[in-house]
Specification:
Elements: H1 19-45, H2 50-72, H3 74-84, H4 92-104, H5 114-125, E1 133-143, E2 147-154, E3 159-165, H6 169-180, H7 184-190, H8 196-210, H9 213-226, E4 233-234, E5 238-242, E6 245-249, E7 254-255, H10 256-262, H11 265-286, E8 288-290, E9 298-300, E10 306-308, E11 314-316, H12 323-333, H13 337-346, H14 358-365, E12 377-378, H15 381-392, H16 397-402, H17 409-428, E13 431-432, H18 434-441
Parallel strand pairs: 4-10
Antiparallel strand pairs: 1-2, 2-3, 3-6, 5-6, 7-9, 8-11, 9-10, 12-13
Helix pairs in contact: 1-2, 1-6, 2-3, 2-4, 3-6, 3-8, 6-8, 11-17, 11-18, 12-13, 13-14
Family: Belongs to the protein kinase superfamily. ADCK protein kinase family.
Keywords: ATP-binding, Nucleotide-binding, Transferase
Domain ABC1 atypical kinase-like: 104-321
Length: 447
């Protein structure tokens, strides 16, 4: 366990695999919430204020959310990490108690004991695996959803990171996502503004690929080649790989989660700018899009480069970002509502047989293009909260319009990744020249 962490889970050695065991733990989330609601009513009757009861309810629910999802790892942990980037969209009075717990899910999970680590290495690299290393640290340097990372020294003297998949991850991952879909309403309440069911469906599709580290290694090699020698982005090179073990160059830097908590303005702005540049340029440069946007996968180095890790979830975009997205954004900025409506219909963003007013559609979409209206834009939690409130207001026209808009399958992953990256920018509070980056890398925008 990490010394000084505010959480402790005793006796966790690997992912619990039995379906009944995992289902029971996941079921404890909504049951726990229900129990606290009843308890809260009792304290209200006993004279406690609504504000006091609400604060205690939120804090205890947040702690349970972190403990259950963190202990289960697998798909539950992955889902928690995905949720963590959306907390910036939640109103402050609701999000504050969850912010710390959700952010922990981005970087923390109970580690495997050394005997389990050695068993996996025996299976994946052969029983003489130790000879391939000059040194190997049994204590994990980082732990995440389906694997943990160890610091080691390769036989040629290079510092390397060894990522080892948790035993049972393959059985647990998809089972978790099936169970979590049953509780989508609970998570919707915890993170307003996030579309939970599509998120779960899309994550499920990515999971199978992430289980084979050889596929991830191929992705990382492609990114490392595309950004080799780049002065803004660093991607570690792959040293060796197996189905459940991957060895890459060891890299260090300041995690984005740390910058979010205590970073200077200059650091926040630079980290945000580098992240946006990486997000929009990758499809053009590598034909791929990094599809796991949470702060644990990014670090800012002293030389100003953004270090990117974890390439398990990747979208293949051999032709780069779709030109349609750039044209849509430009039409929204230029307030060409009729042309925008025509394009949306042609690209199946509007459900067949639906009648929508062009100005209503423009009013719904145009605010999302705010970061591109000015030379520099300041991404803030409040701006993202306003967007979530606007489209989530059951009485508003934007909510009504949004019900009849559709997201074609080929755009779902791009949309989720862009939304996740935007959430990180708002958590950072970054201000930079977003329009300049989009104009350079997004086809169809500057035409």
């Amino acid at each position: 366990m990490r010394v000084g962490d505010a959480w402790t889970i005793i006796g966790v050695t690997e992912i619990p695999r039995r379906a009944v065991q995992r289902t029971a733990r996941l079921a404890s989330l909504p049951l726990g919430v229900a129990g606290r609601v009843v308890s809260g009513w009792g304290r209200r009757l006993a004279g406690q204020s609504a504000e006091e009861v609400s604060a205690e309810f939120s804090a205890r629910t947040a702690e349970q959310l972190f403990t259950v999802l963190g202990q289960l790892k697998g798909g539950a942990m992955k889902f928690g990490q995905a949720l963590s980037v959306f907390e910036a969209a939640a109103p402050d009075n609701l999000a504050a108690p969850y912010r710390e717990a959700l952010t922990k899910l981005q970087t923390a999970a109970p580690p495997m004991p050394a005997r389990t680590v050695h068993r996996v290495l025996d299976e994946q690299l052969g029983t003489s695996w130790i000879k391939r290393f000059a040194d190997f640290d049994d204590e994990p340097a980082a732990a995440a959803s389906i694997g943990q990372v160890h610091h080691a020294v390769w036989h040629d003297g290079r510092d390397v990171a060894v990522k080892i998949q948790y035993p049972g991850a393959d059985q647990a991952l998809l089972a978790d996502l099936r169970q979590l879909s049953r509780f989508s309403r609970l998570f919707q309440a915890l993170v307003p503004g996030a579309e939970i069911k599509p998120l779960l469906a899309e994550l499920r599709e990515r999971m199978v690929e992430e289980l084979d580290y050889r596929t991830e290694a191929d992705h990382e090699r492609a990114f490392a080649k595309a950004f080799d020698g780049d002065d803004k982005v660093l991607v570690p090179h792959v040293v060796a790989s197996a189905p459940k073990v991957m060895v890459t160059e060891w890299v260090t830097g300041l995690p984005l989660a740390t910058i979010m908590r205590e970073g200077e303005v200059e650091q926040r702005n630079l980290a945000g700018e580098r992240l946006a540049e990486f997000h929009f340029s990758s499809p053009a440069r590598a034909g791929l899009l990094h599809a796991d946007p949470h702060p644990g996968n990014f670090m800012l180095r002293e030389d100003g480069r953004l270090c990117v890790i974890d390439f398990g979830a990747v979208a293949r975009l051999p032709d780069g970002l779709p030109r349609t997205l750039g044209v849509m954004t430009r039409l929204a900025l230029e307030e060409r509502s009729e042309e925008l409506l025509e394009l949306l219909r042609a690209e199946h963003f509007i459900r067949p047989g639906t009648e929508l007013d062009a100005e209503d559609v423009l009013a719904y979409l145009a605010p999302f293009a705010d970061p591109l209206r000015t030379e520099r834009f300041h991404f803030t939690r409040r701006w993202l909260q306003r967007q979530a409130e606007r489209i989530g207001d059951l009485r508003g026209q934007d909510f009504h319009t949004g019900r009849f808009l559709n997201l074609p399958p080929q755009y779902l992953l791009i949309h989720r990744v862009t939304l996740g990256a935007t959430g990180i920018l708002c958590q950072l509070g970054a201000e930079f020249r977003a329009r300049e980056i989009v104009a350079r890398w997004q086809p169809g925008f500057a035409e």
